[in-house]
Amino acid sequence: MNSNKAVKAAKPLFYFIAILIPIVVFIAAEMVLRVLNYGVQEPLFISAPKSVNSSLLEASGETSEYLQPNPNLIHRYFSSPETRP
Length: 85
What we know:
With 85 residues, the chain is mostly helical. Helices cover 52% and strands 7% of the residues. The chain has helices at 2-35, 54-59, 74-77; strands spanning 45-47, 67-69. A two-stranded antiparallel ribbon has the order 1-2.
């Protein structure tokens, strides 16, 4: 009877460890890849070029800081952009 209680008591610990192992593996893999600087770090957005009216905005004290999608973002997912879908 005591062994049945021990099994029931160990069950939550087993599930906790079973869930924790893949999480630890993914975190460790991410850390190794970051330390080795694997892959290209392309930002999602880049600063947009200043417009023609930027001098008017700067004279009035307003700033025109816009972001645009990075056209080189495709390199984050495909090593050769010609093979993209």
